[in-house]
């Protein structure tokens, strides 16, 4: 997982171990023998999907694979962003390198060269139902490899160019697909997996930021840290809950604001959005780790069809069905929605003078004349509600396709794509919470929050000044959201033990 995160963040693509070549060559030889023979094997010398019963002559196998790619380039919508496209390509390399797909080494080498030369295909985001693989998106990737389609690259400025031109600019030649190679390229879950992983990687920074912002909110409303005591969380035993509580205790340690109300506070218990922060964020954290584990396994999986085994048998199966990815995406979506829901309640708490423990209404020094952060809170509610709608599961949806041959599908691509919007919504919710929490803590002066949380406020104030007289706050929200999205480096959480590339 660490390798994939580093690559997604702009690092170099890890190369295929040379020791894998023997297995790759062995499987490719099996497929070449089948293509020359009379025994029908799906996708090698037959048609595809509902057309699997139609035999293809040996002389037409190359044409069959080319036609497969061109016919499946049926995607629509916005281009997949560069980082996700590159990750999709890397995952396809990783899958093919397992030596069970029957492709030649040259095919894998071309994908690696495209990554090394920063060539990324123009892949429309819409068109996959997440079963029989991510057919349309992966076909647009494969099209560039045969000199068709469109691509960007390091030597391409502005608009994408033809696949052949993008390859030529890097001194690369298009490949002529051999038996089964087109099918191996488009049969698989690499599009859905890459998109889900990209959202998870971006989300992880945001979760770490949110824990720090939640600690600042706790101080802003003079909340109790007693619910963070370790013995409470040890009795329950959930890893995420224990870690969130520990992180928040550390962030709040040394706060003058906290020490000022340990004695004589008439409130027996804080609202749940303060008292249950570790329980909710911890549960989300545990869900995200489970999803990360599933996606890491999928990133290392062989998900095309049919598969070539060491005994030279070629067996049709269903590893292309993206149900694990769809369910992981649903887990991530639910976690995002819940993190946003509890953050929004903390925002509402801070702007409400009946609940905020003596903070001014809507966190403005002159309420009435000024509305302060009134509508920023409304915006957070709108974003929270949108995320709750988007969190409805996609994996429970299905529709028959391909003349009922593919009669149950996962909708993994749809489930993964909505995560990017949800992460962006959550970033803005957390950004609004940061604006409120910083404003609230500053109203507690001369009492000071803890040293790390003072540093957090200081970083915010380099781009967003305190809110006095009313002003347009949309830009303030955007700056705060961007700060939170990149990670505040005040809380570091491990994504968990799982497989790596």
Please outline what is shown here:
The chain is mainly α and 501 residues long. 54% of the residues lie in helices and 4% in strands.
Draw up the topology in text:
Blueprint lengths: L1 H7 L12 H16 L24 H12 L3 E4 L2 H15 L8 H12 L3 E2 L2 E3 L8 H11 L4 E3 L8 E2 H7 L11 H6 L3 H31 L9 H7 L2 H14 L3 H5 L11 H4 L1 H23 L7 E2 L5 E2 L7 H29 L22 H17 L21 H31 L8 H11 L12 H12 L16
Antiparallel strand pairs: 1-3, 2-4, 4-5, 6-7
Which terms would index this structure?
501 residues; mainly alpha; Fumarase C, Chain B, domain 1; Fumarase C, Chain A, domain 2; 2 domains; three-stranded antiparallel beta sheet; two-stranded antiparallel sheet; 19 helices; 7 strands; 4% strand; histidine metabolism
CATH C-level name of the largest domain: Mainly Alpha
User: What's the average pLDDT?
Assistant: 92
CATH architecture of the largest domain: Up-down Bundle
Q: Please give the radius of gyration in angstroms.
A: 26 Å
pLDDT < 50 stretches:
none
Give the number of helices: 19
Provide the number of structural domains: 2
N-to-C SSE string, H for helix and E for strand: HHHEHHEEHEEHHHHHHHHEEHHHHH
CATH fourth-tier homologous superfamily of the largest domain:
Fumarase/aspartase (Central domain)
Strand line-up across the major sheet: 2-4-5
Family: Belongs to the PAL/histidase family.
GO cellular component, one term: cytoplasm
EC number: 4.3.1.3
Subcellular location: Cytoplasm
């Amino acid at each position: 997982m660490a390798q994939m995160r580093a690559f997604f963040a702009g690092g170099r693509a890890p190369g295929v171990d040379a020791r894998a070549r023997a297995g790759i060559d062995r499987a490719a030889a099996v497929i070449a023998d089948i293509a020359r023979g009379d025994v029908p094997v799906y996708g090698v010398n037959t048609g595809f999907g509902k057309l699997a019963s139609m035999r293809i002559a040996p002389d037409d196998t190359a044409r069959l694979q080319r036609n497969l790619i061109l016919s499946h380039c049926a995607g629509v919508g916005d281009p997949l962003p560069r980082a996700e496209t590159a990750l999709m390509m890397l995952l396809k390399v990783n899958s093919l390198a397992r030596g069970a797909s029957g492709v030649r080494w040259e095919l894998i080498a071309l994908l690696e060269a495209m990554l090394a030369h920063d060539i990324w295909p123009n892949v429309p985001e819409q068109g996959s139902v997440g079963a029989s693989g991510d057919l349309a998106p992966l076909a647009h990737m494969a099209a560039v490899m045969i000199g068709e389609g469109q691509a960007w690259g390091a030597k391409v400025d502005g608009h994408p160019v033809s696949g052949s031109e993008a390859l030529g600019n890097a001194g690369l030649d298009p490949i002529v697909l051999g038996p089964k190679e087109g099918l191996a390229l488009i049969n698989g879950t690499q599009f859905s997996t890459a998109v889900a992983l990209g959202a998870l990687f971006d989300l992880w920074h945001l979760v770490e930021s949110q824990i720090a912002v939640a600690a600042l909110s706790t101080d802003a409303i003079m909340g109790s840290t007693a619910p963070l005591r370790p013995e409470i969380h040890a009795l329950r035993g959930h890893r995420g809950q224990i870690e969130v509580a520990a992180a928040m205790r550390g962030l709040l340690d040394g706060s003058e604001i906290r020490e000022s109300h340990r004695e004589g506070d008439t409130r027996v218990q804080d609202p749940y959005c303060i008292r249950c922060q570790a329980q909710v964020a911890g549960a989300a954290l545990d869900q995200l780790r489970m999803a990360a584990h599933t996606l890491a396994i999928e990133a290392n999986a062989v998900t095309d069809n049919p598969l070539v085994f060491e005994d030279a048998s070629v067996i049709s199966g269903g590893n292309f069905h993206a149900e694990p990815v769809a369910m992981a995406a649903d887990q991530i979506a639910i976690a995002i929605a819940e993190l946003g829901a509890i953050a929004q309640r903390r925002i509402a708490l801070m702007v409400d003078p009946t609940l905020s423990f003596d903070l001014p209404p809507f966190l403005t020094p002159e309420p009435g004349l000024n509305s302060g952060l009134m509508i920023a809170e409304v915006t957070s509610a709108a974003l929270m509600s949108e995320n709750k709608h988007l969190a409805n599961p996609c994996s429970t949806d299905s529709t028959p396709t391909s003349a009922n041959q593919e009669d149950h599908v996962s909708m993994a691509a749809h489930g993964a794509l909505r995560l990017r919007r949800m992460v962006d919504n959550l970033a803005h919710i957390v950004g609004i919470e940061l604006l409120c929490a910083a404003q609230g803590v500053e109203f507690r002066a001369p009492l000071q929050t803890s040293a790390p949380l003072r540093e957090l406020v200081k970083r915010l104030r380099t781009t967003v000044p305190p809110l006095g007289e009313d002003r347009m706050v949309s830009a303030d929200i955007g700056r705060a959201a961007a700060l939170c999205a990149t990670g505040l480096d005040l809380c570091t959480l491990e994504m968990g033990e799982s497989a790596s590339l």
